[in-house]
Write a structure and sequence with these properties.
By secondary structure, the protein is an alpha/beta fold. The chain contains 13 helices and 14 strands. It has two domains: 133 residues, Nuclear Transport Factor 2, Chain: A, CATH 3.10.450.50; 203 residues, Alpha-Beta Barrel (TIM Barrel). Strand 10, helix 8 and strand 11 form a beta-alpha-beta unit.
C-alpha cells in the first residue's frame, strides 16, 4: 500500500509538471484540501477544499505567471514521513522576458491520503520543514511503539518488525547497547526498509551521531544521554527527538522546556520494573496519572513492563500510548500480541 501511495504522488506531481491539472485531480479525493497558507509568496496564500476550488485557484495562479512568461514545476525528491504520509520537494520557476521578473523557489509538500487517494497537500517552506511536520504528526497519532534489538533471538529482525507493524505498531525503535556503531548502521537497514514498507516511523536509540547514517526518522535520548538541544543540533532540522522521564519533576521539566530544548515525544516510566531497564526502579502508575492530568500537547508514551495483562490498567490510569519490548518480541504470535495491545488502547 505504501508503494502505491508513493507511485500516486509521483504521478500527481508529474501531471502538475506537465500542466495537466485534470490528470492530477483524478488521483485525489473529491474533497481534496490544498493548504498554501505557509507560503511567503504574494499570491496563493489560501486553503482550498474540493477539486473545483483548487482548479480555480490553480488557473488564477497560472494566469498571473503566463502574463510574464509562464511557470514550470519540477519534482525533486520524495520520501515517507510516517503515519502513512509522504513528503515531496518541488521546485517552481519562471521568468518574464519583457519584465525580467523571475521566480525560482523550492518547497516541501506534506501529502496525506484517504483510501489511497491524495486527500490533503500542505505547503511548507522547505523539504525539511515538511518532513518534520509529518514526523511530528505521525508521532502524535501513534499509539503503539515497539523497541527491538538488532538481532532478536539471534535472527533477522525483518519478520518480527513486519509482524509488529501489521498488528498495529506505528513506530519501531532500534535499541542495542551491545553492538558497535558499524553494526548499528548495518542493522538499521532492515528497520528502515520495514518502516518504509508500512509507512511507519523508525527511531534510533541513544545515538544522534548515527541518525544520518542509519536514515532514521528520529532519535530517543535518556536523562543521562545527549541533551535534547544538542541532539537536535547533531541530527538536523527534520528529525524528531524523544526523551525518557522517570519522575513528575522530569516530566514537567520536559514539558516546560522551550525551543529546541523541548522534546517531540516523552517516555514515562518504567511503570513496572523490567529487565530491559536494569537498575531503574519502577515509577508506578502515579507517574502515568500525573502525565495524564497534565494533558500536554507533546505526545507521551508509558513504558516499562507493559503487556496484555496490565495494559488495561494503564489505559484506566490515563495512558493512550505505550512502548513495549518483550510483550511483542517474546510472544508466540507477535502480530496477534501487537493487535491485542493496540485494541486495548482504543
Amino acid at each position: 500500500m505504501e508503494r502505491a501511495k508513493r507511485e500516486r504522488v509521483v504521478r500527481y506531481f508529474d501531471f502538475m509538471e506537465g500542466g495537466e491539472i485534470e490528470g492530477a485531480l483524478e488521483l485525489t479525493t473529491e474533497d481534496l484540501v490544498v493548504d498554501r497558507r505557509n507560503s511567503n509568496a504574494p499570491w496563493g496564500r489560501e486553503r482550498t477544499k474540493g477539486r473545483e476550488e483548487f482548479r480555480a485557484s490553480w488557473r488564477a495562479f497560472q494566469r498571473q505567471w503566463e502574463e510574464v512568461g509562464g511557470v514550470s514545476w519540477e519534482r525533486l525528491r520524495i520520501r515517507t514521513a510516517g503515519g502513512g504520509r509522504v513528503v515531496v520537494e518541488t521546485r517552481i520557476s519562471g521568468q518574464g522576458p519583457a519584465t525580467g521578473l523571475s521566480m525560482d523557489a523550492r518547497a516541501g509538500w506534506l501529502v496525506s491520503f484517504a483510501s489511497e487517494r491524495i486527500s490533503e497537500l500542505t505547503f511548507h517552506q522547505s523539504f525539511d520543514e515538511a518532513l518534520l511536520a509529518g514526523r511530528r504528526q505521525a508521532m502524535a497519532e501513534a499509539r503503539l511503539y515497539f523497541v527491538c534489538e538488532a538481532r532478536p533471538a539471534g535472527s533477522d529482525p525483518g519478520p518480527l518488525l513486519d509482524a509488529a507493524l501489521r498488528g498495529g505498531a506505528e513506530i519501531v525503535q532500534l535499541r542495542d547497547k551491545r553492538i558497535d556503531a558499524e553494526q548499528l548502521v548495518g542493522a538499521a537497514t532492515a528497520f528502515r526498509e520495514v518502516a518504509d514498507r508500512h509507512g511507519a516511523l523508525f527511531v534510533l536509540n541513544d545515538r544522534p551521531d548515527l541518525v544520518s547514517a542509519c536514515d532514521a526518522d528520529g532519535v530517543h535520548v535518556g536523562q543521562d544521554d545527549t541533551p535534547v538541544a544538542e541532539a537536535r543540533r547533531i541530527v538536523g532540522e527534520a528529525v524528531v527527538v524523544g526523551l525518557s522521564t522517570h519522575s513528575p519533576a522530569q516530566f514537567d521539566a520536559a514539558l516546560s522546556a522551550l525551543g529546541g530544548q523541548r522534546p517531540d515525544q516523552i517516555s514515562v516510566g518504567p511503570v513496572w520494573e523490567t529487565p530491559t531497564k536494569e537498575g531503574r526502579p519502577a515509577a508506578g502508575l502515579e507517574l502515568v496519572r500525573h502525565a495524564a492530568k497534565a494533558g500536554p500537547e507533546t505526545p507521551w508514551f508509558a513504558i516499562g513492563g507493559i503487556d496484555a495483562s496490565n495494559v488495561g490498567e494503564l489505559a484506566r490510569a490515563g495512558a493512550r500510548r505505550i512502548v513495549v519490548v518483550r510483550a511483542i518480541r517474546d510472544a508466540p504470535d507477535p502480530e496477534a500480541a501487537a493487535r491485542e495491545l493496540r485494541a486495548a488502547l482504543g
